[in-house]
Design brief:
CATH class of the largest domain: Alpha Beta
Largest sheet: 7 strands, mixed
Strand order of the largest sheet: 3-2-1-4-5-7-6
Shape: elongated
CATH topology of the largest domain: Rossmann fold
Number of helices: 6
Structural class: alpha/beta
Order of helices and strands: HHEHEEHEHEHEEEEEEEE
CATH superfamily of the largest domain: Vaccinia Virus protein VP39
Radius of gyration: 21 Å
Helix content: 25-40%
Number of strands: 13
Number of domains: 2
Length: 254
């Protein structure tokens, strides 16, 4: 008997009408991180056969869009797009079906077809996850959330750093529904950054005003940065310490 047919979550998915055991992974991710909220617009990249779409619709009840190069069997209340997430034409189709200001959450449980060559499969998994990340950045609204599956390996730390550059909070997480022997792990990004400034980058700024707490206020391409102890009119070099979706904190460089 195949392993899947002896698997608890495989049987549970069948009993509860989900299209894949992966449905419970998204449930557990959301219980932990609350990346999908009631009414959210959610885009699922690499969505076939649709287990994550079913869960996203249950949790949100809002606009849900699934994207895959393979056809996705109809799910009530869910829209689908047949296309490659690496192509601009697919990104434009997603935008046409979602809010102009961007979507709330992008999820991706896609995996490459496995060859048995671990180094190759790991590299292809990282490449697929990176494509999902780039697509997410194009369609998410500021402050939006992201969850993607990736295989662990030597390329994983670099990919995790890429996600950290785009989101305020980033965690790696293994749901209980993942098989114990699996090398898969999920990267969760919360609060998409605008990209105006980056953590640890240095900038020359002029303090234009003072905030209610007494911190100096500078602007970098109209993005507000608070600088502790800085006075209005000062020109100084700062290093970005922390970034939020709509503002950042910087430290004076002596």
């Amino acid at each position: 008997m195949p392993r899947d047919r002896r698997d608890y979550f495989y049987k549970k998915a069948k009993d509860e009408g989900y299209r894949s055991r992966a449905a419970f992974k998204l449930k557990q991710i959301n219980e932990k991180f609350n990346i999908i909220k009631k009414g959210d617009t959610v885009v699922d990249l690499g969505a076939a056969p649709g287990g994550w779409l079913q869960i996203a619709k249950e949790i949100s009840g809002g606009k849900i869009v699934g994207v895959d190069i393979l056809p996705i069997e109809k799910i009530e209340g869910v829209e689908t797009i047949k296309g490659d997430i690496r192509l601009d034409v697919t990104v434009e189709k997603i935008k046409e079906k979602t809010r102009k200001e961007g979507v709330d959450t992008v999820i991706c449980d896609a995996a490459p077809n496995l060859t048995g060559n671990w180094s190759y499969d790991h590299a292809r998994s990282i490449d697929l996850a990176a494509s999902a990340l780039e697509c997410a950045k194009k369609i998410l609204k500021p402050g939006g959330g992201f969850a993607v599956k990736v295989f662990q390996g030597d390329l994983f730390p670099d990919f995790l750093d890429k996600v950290r550059q785009g989101f305020v909070k980033v965690k790696a997480f293994s749901p209980k529904a993942s098989r114990k022997q699996s090398a898969e792990i999920y990267v969760i990004g919360r609060e998409l950054l605008t990209g105006a400034v980056r953590i640890n980058e240095e900038y020359n700024v002029t303090i234009e005003d003072t905030g209610a707490s007494g911190d100096g206020i500078a602007k970098i391409n109209d993005f507000v940065v608070f600088v502790k102890g800085a006075k209005k009119g000062e020109k100084l070099n700062i290093r970005i310490r922390h970034v939020k979706p709509n503002f950042a904190f910087g430290d004076r460089i002596e």
